[in-house]
Write a structure and sequence with these properties.
Length: about 120
Amino acid sequence: MQGYELVKQVKQEADAHRDRVFIKWWRNEEDFIDFDLVTRFLENLNNSTTIGGFELIDQEEMWRTVEGRCQGRVSKEQRGGDWVLRWTPPAGAEVEEKLDEYPYTPESLLKILDAETNYNYVD
């Protein structure tokens, strides 16, 4: 799947499921999986990009992915009516900004997953 057809399918799926703000995609070789925000994925896509397939997922499913990957180093807590993430990065992880807590947002979930996997998620 590539180019125009890929954009068309992702947009149709995103329009049908507005709560699914993440894209989980893989190459034809199925040797790795990557995650991104749907909007950012579409912005960075070019006509020569070829992928094997994709699935759109919601924030709760991404949370379960991050939680499973972190193996006890992340928790989700409610503070003052808002959800926050408390995360202890693994040793040697490259973290832009080490915080005590992160907002429970799609962007924070991706930052944590990227740091946990060193930008190379393998299922």
